[in-house]
Amino acid sequence: MKSEASVDTGELHSPEQKPRVPRHVAIIMDGNGRWAARRGMPRVEGHEHGTDNIRRITYAAGELGIEYMTLWAFSTENWRRPADEVDGILRILGQAIERETEELHRQGARLCHIGSLDGLSPETRQSVLDAIELTRNNT
Fold first, then answer.
1. Does some domain include residue 1?
2. CATH number of the domain enclosing 116
3. Active site residue 78
4. pLDDT tens, residue by residue, 108-139
5. DSSP assignments along 40-77, one per residue
6. Is residue 53 among the annotated active site residues?
7. Does residue 2 fall inside a structural domain?
8. Catalytic residue among 32, 53, 78, 138
9. Which of 8, 17, 24, 78 is deepest in the core (most CB within 10 A)?
10. Residue 135 DSSP SS3
11. For range 17-30, the mean pLDDT
12. Helices in 65-119 by DSSP H: which ranges?
């Protein structure tokens, strides 16, 4: 995948050597709210910035040849956060799915969901299911 964020893979290997990258990378998205709070921003703004970072990381991973990525976006413990933060995180999730699915599909990515869709708004749940369906034949 090509991205706006270019990655210099030259540091990973010598010219005659194939780059050594993992086949699978898992990311636990944690600390975005604390990052924002330390900067005097609302916690939800940190989650929005986190989404931007995930976009850059995802495309960089594709450029490096990483075959699989797992994103841990929301755990059952997150339901205990203040309602406005939970609503914000779920809104951001829905927006990201809507915004990124077509491009990920064009790039040949397949989106899968692990876990429960319970608690998501009907619109966000449908966006997730639509993304899964659209990309199900990709690799």
1. no
2. 3.40.1180.10
3. yes
4. 999 999 999 998 999 999 999 999 999 999 98
5. TS-HHHHHHHHHHHHHHHHHHHHHHT--EEEEE---GG
6. no
7. no
8. 78
9. 78
10. helix
11. 89
12. 83-106
Residues 68/25, Cβ–Cβ less than 8 Å: yes
The model's pTM is: 0.77
CA-based angle 2:94:7, to the nearest 5?
20
For residue 42, CA distances in Å to 48, 53, 54, 68 come to 10, 17, 19, 32
Residue labelled with tokens 């989404």: 51
Residue linked to tokens 């319970």: 118
Contact 121, 94 (CB under 8 A): yes
Residue 5 lies in a domain: no
Q: Give the total number of structural domains in the chain.
A: 1
Residue 111 lies inside a defined structural domain of this protein = yes
Residue 3 — pLDDT band, cuts 50, 70, 90? very low
